Amino acid sequence: MSARVQLASIAGVILSLPARLVEPAMSGIQRGLGIKRMPWVFLLPNLVAVVLFALLPVFINVFYSMSGSDRLFPWDRPFVGGANYQSLLDCTNYLDPSTCSRDLFWRALGNTLVFVPVQVICMIAIALLTAICLNRDIVGRGFFRGIFFFPVMLSPVVVALTWQWILQRNGALNGLISAAGLTPVNWLVFPNTAFFWSVFVTVWAHMGFYTIILLAGLQAIPRDVYEAAKMDSATPWRVFTRITLPLLKPVMLVVFILAVIRSVQTFDELYVLTGGGPGSATMLMVQYIYEVGFASQPRNFGLASAASLFLGLALLIFTGIQMRISRGGNND
Amino acid sequence: MLAAAPVTTAYAQQITVWAGDTGTGGKIFAEMGKAFEAENPGVTVVVEEVSYQTLVESLPVQLEAGEGPDIAIITDLGGLSRFYQDITPYVDAAYFEQEWGQTLQWLRGGDAQSTAIYGMPTTLTVNGAYVNLTLFEQAGVPVPAEGATWQEWAEATRQVAAATNTEFAMEMDRSGHRFASLAISYGAQLVDSEGRPVVDDGLRAAIEQFVAWHQDGTMPMDLWGAVGGATHRELFSDFLNANTVLYFGGSWTLAQMDSEVGDLFDWAVVPAPCGPSSCTVMPGGGAMTVFSHTQNAEIAGKLINYYAQPANLDHYISTEVEIPSAASQIANGVEYPSASARTSEALATFINQIPKMDAAAYRFQGWRYQRAMMNALTTRISQVLNNELTVDAAMERIEEDVNLAIQAAGGQS
Asked: What are B268's strand-pairing partners?
């Protein structure tokens, strides 16, 4: 027997060892619990992980939101009940953030409620358009797929710094504008333009990911459906609305939920690009939570936790609306 | 003096020191740490260079959890006071008091009765204005003399900017610390002797003046206007590229001026512009402190005592080209062999501002809630510049923000 064969057989014995040990153990457990309860045995490791690292932190967060002080450990934090929530909700007029005792929270919440729908709709529309183009037999299709996916691989801080160099007063964009004989614009100084670029930069940075998912969805649609439509002389718009969109709907729902979750969590790009400014024009909820809980001194963990629960609630509402829309669509 | 007393160690002990990434980072402390190790067998000194952001944002969270380095060079001297370890038994306390009497008080978190020694102030930093003398010369405008007011500087720099087609007359770092110089010179107290925030007419006058300079284009919106929240931002590159006539920053950018501008244009650090109340700038600086979670308090204390020895201190300050914080160094001066004549002159100007500093500036610098006030200043003034708040509303918010911070800390002033 050659040395290579010997090594392979030794490796085989070592690799099969866990299986030889696990198999009798699992048989024993199955005999004890019965076959119907076996799925719980396999679910148990994941359940423990979910409880420890997802559910438990939520409950800890709820406790923090009801406690005061800048101390980190729960036993050092006095219980204050709903004081943090009361502080966040203390407003004379909910439509005017300046009348609220935590005005920046309301400005951040308002910005998030505008930013998320605008950014998600823009991103999905552009990603879908790009996916449809990339699904066609165009020259250099692989190259273009790479190009559109490339920003997804960049660190958000790199993305933000790059765009800051482009958009700042003496940046590349104003250089081009000046060269064309036009008046440069200080893009990040005005609330409206800063908000526009916030949406643009985040769409640019993340759309590649959704383009790839949508592209996979488009490629899963059977070709013969399109061929039948072509034989019926259906217009491209009719093909899009009656074939592509309905068949893409399950993928769209996934994309929608992922995009909304990512959008609500937006922080790093905007923190580096605008710091939430001008004023508070691009301050989103996550930045508010970060500033209150981590950037301020002393750190107000209680207020940050309460605000983060509001963020969770906002996410639940967004997801619920999507599920309702999707269910409504399925019933049609 | 305790300095030379070696630490008796039966087994190996390691001390971790965090140093910021400005200047030479922790290179000199690492080098001196080797000499300490040679004198104290079994002791290892590990100096780690970390970003300034890590020191400001991550370190406090780690300390809260009882983690982090044994020693760090920090700048929020009052804010982190409850994490410090008293090293009085391990250092020459009389020497520390003699050299750093006032700055040691900043480390005591507002406890006026305390005599504890929590560390060694490393360098002093001073806010200040850099001006482009070449632009003044080209414009034919005389440089305002010592004692000139902020308004006189604004007027002169506006004339220079107009005559030389320079983009902006004045710029100031987006930093509550920098703004505090202007505010205190306008009479703001910012904090009273009880440790409560003070929002007074001096602060109002300074904010109104600051807003007016942004509205009339004396200052660009890029720093204070375009950014939100507590974000720190500086555009010293504007001064390096001669895009602004005056830049209000601080002594820590001297080395950068020297290396990047050199003789490309004439520049100088000017004496503190005066407000109606005083001609003050803010003191600042770092301190090397020992944290209470350390398992090796004695060695950490002795290491700091070693770094504090006059020869080591001189070596550090002259190599880093920094302003000394030790009284004898300030009185006797420090040689900066690697610095140019212009940088030495600028350092001298910065050092000359120290005796002129207002008592309110020292009080503010040592206040435990200084960072809360500075964050509130940047956030709220930016909102005023963007018409989200009036000056009156901003004043109310600043007070509320700081009171909320005090409340979050359990109401201890």
From this structure: B131
